[in-house]
Amino acid sequence: MSVIEVSELRKSYGGRAVVDGVSFSVQEGEIFGILGPNGAGKTTTVECVEGLRVPDAGRIRVTGLDPVADHERVARVLGAQLQQSELQAKLTVREALELYASFYPRPANWRPLAERLGLTDKLATRFGKLSGGQKQRLFIALALVGDPRVVVLDELTTGLDPRARRDTWQLIEDVRAAGVTVLLVTHFMEEAQRLCDRIAVIDKGRIAALDTPEGLIRRSAGATVISFTPSAPLDEHDLNALPEVASVAYKDGRVTLSGTDATVNAVITLLARHHVTAHQLRVSDATLDDAFLDLTEAAA
Questions:
Q1: Which of 47, 138, 159, 242 sits CB 3.0–4.6 Å from 132 for a disulfide?
Q2: Which ranges form a coiled coil (predicted)?
Q3: Considering all CA atoms of the chain, what is the largest pairwise distance in Å, rounded to the nearest integer?
Q4: Phi, psi (degrees; rounded to nearest 5) at 203
């Protein structure tokens, strides 16, 4: 069942198309990611989903409701953590959580949320005295305090230290396990690869690819990376002629090839044929970073 449906969404500013025909759907219980370079149209897209911006064209439905025409009803089922948010500087963390909880007929218990996000010892602290990371954690709590059916998280872990980031990832996985659908905008590839069931890559206002993280990685020009330092020089023509090689690079006497599993076997055979030893041989799979760069560079 689709909880979010976006069809041919378009939004322009000053005659420039920021979102240009974006379509996707998000299934119930899914963590759906949106990736893209700065200025690609990611935040505008999710702000239209949230009803914060009115599309120029296209159709959006959140649990069957129009985010603009049915804004109050959508607000009861959708929680949002925006890319840029502020609260009144003198409001304490406790007051903010209690205030937001009062907006909903059946809010979540904010105390466990505050504990999970490391805010328990900051409940009496005023918003203006919080660090950037603490503010970010508070906004995540506020997005979840209404016990939403759908939550939109824009740059979820910006400003968080590595431990807080991983704790937050676990919280989001727990939220999804409880039946909440998550729409996640991020520029952290590790975050997207760990959390997302599917990812839409947006570039220049259009969807460049939509697939699972594994599917996007398989699209990478070189899904497997082989690097080593040869004990003797190798002929560049021989390396480029290996099966399914996508690229060959040399740096400081080290050779790095990208290709497939077939390339790995061919490299080993080539080295044996020439009686060359591969020092510090490394074989690794491509990452979402590699796939993202391939997709966005191809669209450039």
A1: 159
A2: none
A3: 74
A4: -140, 130
Asked if 35 and 186 count as a contact pair (C-beta separation under 8 A), the reply is yes
Distance of CA 182 to the CA centre of its chain: 11
Residue 50, class by beta-carbon neighbours within 10 Å (0-12 exposed, 13-18 middle, 19+ buried)?
buried
What is residue 9's three-state secondary structure?
strand
Residue 184 pLDDT grade (very low, low, confident, very high; cuts 50, 70, 90):
very high
**Final residue of a domain: which of 168, 187, 211?**
211
Q: Please give the Cα distance from 216 to 201 (Å, whole number).
A: 9
pLDDT score at 117: 87
What pLDDT was estimated at residue 66? 97
Which residues, in sequence order, are bridge partners of residue 8?
A: none
On the question of pLDDT at 298 being above 70, the answer is: no
75 and 142 belong to one structural domain: yes
Answer yes or no: do 237 and 89 share one domain. no
Residue 288's domain is classified under what CATH number? Answer: 3.30.70.980
List of residues 6+ apart from 145 with CB closer than 8 A: 79, 97, 100, 101, 104, 107, 108, 110, 113
Of 179, 211, 243, the one marking the end of a domain is 211
CA atoms within 13 A on the CB side of 11: 25
> In this predicted structure, which of 90-94, 115-119, 154-158, 182-186 has the lowest mean pLDDT?
154-158
The domain that holds 143 is classified in CATH as 3.40.50.300
Query: Containing H/E element for 218?
Result: helix 213-218
Do 107 and 101 form a contact (C-beta atoms < 8 A)?
A: yes
Domain shared by 171 and 223, yes or no: no
Are 34 and 43 a contacting pair, CB within 8 Å? no
**Average pLDDT of the chain to the nearest whole number:** 91
- Residue range(s) defining the domain that contains residue 43: 2-211
Is 7 or 117 the better-scoring residue by pLDDT?
7
